[in-house]
Write a structure and sequence with these properties.
This protein is an alpha+beta fold. Helix content is 33%, strand content 24%.
Amino acid sequence: MDKNKKLLLLLFLAAFMIGFILFLIYRPDQAEARAEAKRIHSYPYRGIEDFYSEPQGDQLVKYTSISLAYDEKHEQPLWVCYLLTKQQLEHPVCKRNNRFKADPNIVSGSASLSDYYKSGYDRGHLVPAADMLWSKQAMKESFYMSNMSPQLPAFNRGAWKRLESAVRKTARLEDSLIIITGPLFNDTLGSIGQNHVSIPAEYYKVVVDISAPHLGAVAFIMPHRNTNLPLDKFVVSMDSLEHYSGIDFMAPLPDPLENQLEDTIDKALLEKLMY
């Protein structure tokens, strides 16, 4: 064998050995196991403040269960944030009270009941009253107009209600969820009332499972119209929602956990929401 053939053979063997070693180190069949090993599996919950988003509107308001970032320009929140637990849902102490009222705690003044009167739009809860049955005070606060957004009746009582029900069902399965909800103003459908309450063209909802051992998140963007499409047709990653909305969700969380929640759509959580 001449020198050139020997050299080629040696190069081939060297390349083969390097490839084999890399295969052993980065085995594709173990990629999922390596990713799972890097996951954060528990989180010492301290309060919903860890999940507040930026921007925080013109006024950050904290209630018994709900925190919200009020936007004076649109006369509704940029986001609402709250904890929803299995214990809350299984131990109701009150009924829906239907006592809508202007929020006395909004410095600039919230939207009013008259803004919605004969508008053709529902006073659409961003935090559902059905999630607040565990506390009379929380129920009262959920009916402040600062928690409302103009919603078409077919949407509010149709697709949006289906998503809210799916979240409650999942909370009973998973124990503890953080919910972040709000309107999107990339486009609007006009406004209603003397206070010019904006009518969003879309809404979003973020569901974060903080129950060990599987921390994960799913986000939804829903067009402001009724639809019979399955809810998973509206699923997006947190990163996509942040890019689209301009909101930095869960900014106070440690970066590794924030990245874990935002980078991928959690399939296990999504399956429970769709079940």
